[in-house]
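Sharing a chain and its predicted structure for anyone who wants a worked example. Both blocks are below, sequence first, tokens second.
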Amino acid sequence: MAYIGNVAQSSYSSFDRQSLTGNGTTGPYTLSHAVANEQEIEVFVNYVRQRPGDAYTTSGNQMTMTGNVASTDDFYVVFQGKALQTVVPPDGSITSAMFSSGLTLGGGTYKGENGEVNAGGGDIFRVHQQTLDNNVTIDSDENALCAGPLTVASTKVLTVNGNLVIA
């Protein structure tokens, strides 16, 4: 069936980035990829994008700035034509804030065929604490699961808004 719009993505892309260290001169600085011209890269000095051709020029894998770049400057290049293709999101790109449920990444242990793995293992068994040490509220539009014995610390409260079924 035909559709209108962009084709669904089967991989993620991120542009290659190179951090540079200024040496108090205009360079030349060696780039990790050769470029055809200044338009193929974005150059940032102290988080300010530099204008191609005016602030810097390139020749192959060499870049020369028109002004001096100090070693204390934050100095990096983004290669516009060098996208890195992956089938998973790049490392460090997923944060807790991206989950609508407020999921906190990490915590707990997984055990099974891969031995014992700290957070993120995803093996057969999820091992968790037996004592609830924080106040927790489970809203009526949420589902929750806890296995094994559970002790709620004497000064803490577990609130369930809705039905509670214990099997």
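Comments welcome. The two ends are 46 Å apart (CA to CA).
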